[in-house]
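thought: user wants a sequence for this fold. calling inverse folding tool.
action: design(structure=
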């Protein structure tokens, strides 16, 4: 569709494969499937879920929110449901919000999902972006359990002054859908890759250092570092600046590309499945995305 090559994509990004949802498969379908697997792993039934938070920039529709569709699909009838939009940083934002509801004793069981059908906003004529993004979903169950820790801290940040680096102009109140907006391809995401790259490395390192400082931890004490899976070179630059050891960073972007809010959720699941995280281990999540937004979270598994 565009002039590119596997060699260019591999050397510039590290991405080898991306998965695209089917035409009749929506973000809520991917989210519901991830949710059901997370609930099974946690030993929690749909009836126990008090709250569903979905982090996404590709909701099924502008409204109702995607969490409501998920609530219906998984049969979590008691659950409140809302979405969070912090682009590729959405998962950490959603986990932190869920954690706050548990700490305040408002809810016992919160289902947090990062889910995207980015192929629905990808411009297949734009080689600067179409080689980077994929579809997917990941989920976690947060619960107030005795003798367990979970999320120790979450750092979040934003720079709205750099919103023009990564955005989708069409479809909102500023630029509602018209024949002209469609013809101008405004309903696809646009990115200034070079600037985004630099900001990503800086913000991810700053957030990670702040998260470690708050927990009085050194990077060497972290068992597994799970960065947002956007670009292999961003991950390598972050690893080098943080002084991470080889093997400490978990990377799976070669198989999924950038799945935005789903990215670290999918990677967390795969890291656990691969035996890289055991109970009691410290995990550091680091994210960055449009907004700009960023974040880092320390988890005791
Ligand atoms: C997009 C990205 C891979 C581009 O890599 P880069 O090394 O910065 O490349 P440049 O921007 O210097 O572009 C170099 C050339 O490659 C071209 N190019 C861009 N995409 C291409 C593709 N898929 N295939 C072939 N050539 C491509 C550009 O047009 C440019 O050509 P030009 O110099 O003739 O204009 C990189 O900037 C990046 O990963 N940025 C961060 C993106 C990201 O992760 N965003 C999400 C954050 S949540």
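)
observation: tool returned 301 residues.
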């Amino acid at each position: 569709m565009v002039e590119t090559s596997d060699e260019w994509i591999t050397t510039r990004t590290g991405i080898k494969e991306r998965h695209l949802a089917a035409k009749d498969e929506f973000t809520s379908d991917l989210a519901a499937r991830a949710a059901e697997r997370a609930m099974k792993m946690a030993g929690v039934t749909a009836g126990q879920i008090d709250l569903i938070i979905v982090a996404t920039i590709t909701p099924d529709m502008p409204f109702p929110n995607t969490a409501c569709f998920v609530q219906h699909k998984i049969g979590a009838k008691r659950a409140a449901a809302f979405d969070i939009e912090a682009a590729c940083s959405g998962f950490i934002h959603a986990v932190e919000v869920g954690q706050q509801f548990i700490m305040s004793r408002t809810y016992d069981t919160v289902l947090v999902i990062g889910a995207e059908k980015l192929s629905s906003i990808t411009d297949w004529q734009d080689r600067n972006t179409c080689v980077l993004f994929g579809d997917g979903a990941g989920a976690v169950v947060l619960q107030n359990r005795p003798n367990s820790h979970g999320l120790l801290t979450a750092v979040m940040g934003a720079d709205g002054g750099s919103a023009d680096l990564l955005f989708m102009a069409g479809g909102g109140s500023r630029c509602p859908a018209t024949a002209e907006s469609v013809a101008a391809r405004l309903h696809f995401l646009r990115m200034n890759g070079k600037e985004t790259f630099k900001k990503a490395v800086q913000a991810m390192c700053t957030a990670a250092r702040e998260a470690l400082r708050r927990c009085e931890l050194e990077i060497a004490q972290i068992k597994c570092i799970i960065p947002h899976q956007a670009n292999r070179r961003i991950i390598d630059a972050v690893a080098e600046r943080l002084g991470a050891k080889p093997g400490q960073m978990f990377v799976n972007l070669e198989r999924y590309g950038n799945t935005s809010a789903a990215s670290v959720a999918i990677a967390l699941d795969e890291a656990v499945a691969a035996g890289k995280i055991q109970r009691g281990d410290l995990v550091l999540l680091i994210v960055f995305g449009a907004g700009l937004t960023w974040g880092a979270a320390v988890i005791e598994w």
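thought: summarizing for user.
answer: Here is the designed sequence. The chain is about 35% helix and 20% strand.
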